[in-house]
Amino acid sequence: MYREPPSRPVHGRTFTQDARRAQIVEATIETLAEIGYTRTSFTAICRHANLSSTGLISYHFAGKPQLLREVTRTIVEKAGPLRACRVAQETTYRGKLAAYISSHFDFMAAFPAHARALTEIAELVREGPAPGLDDVARSALSVEGLVVLLEEGCRAGEFRVSDPAVLALAVHGAIDNVVRHHELFAVADLDRLARELTAIFTRCTLSP
Q: pTM of this prediction?
């Protein structure tokens, strides 16, 4: 009689264990998005994941910092390819900058819970030391990729930017603040927000 083959281990875990970890991560994302970091507990996550005990979370994750590291990694791995694909499709650096900005809003529209969860984690890191989380969260918030894009645009003669690193920080700061304002008040549609920010920062890169 045919029997299902046993689950093969992935990085020392079975497919079943990986599926349970993924379930917990998605439930954590939903919980962060719905009630915020301070109210997110293993008990609250259990309710979202329909788990019978918080012990099931503790079995897979040593603590909240380790779980949040995995949440951050999961969100970044979902958002990164979307942004990279949008940017790569453009043939000019002005187009790449516009795609870079709009991809953040595209991600927010497609995965609102993921975007909100990452905002919560970012706020946690900005408020002070977050043991076990600082490195991965700061990597997720890095502007290095945008700095490279701006530098290449300058070398190609499309941009005139005196300090690409400062402008990259300004772009990210604007995106973060517009996103937070939208989450609180929903004052405008995401497409319009992306267009307005793109127009502002395109003007910032023009030659004087």
A: 0.82
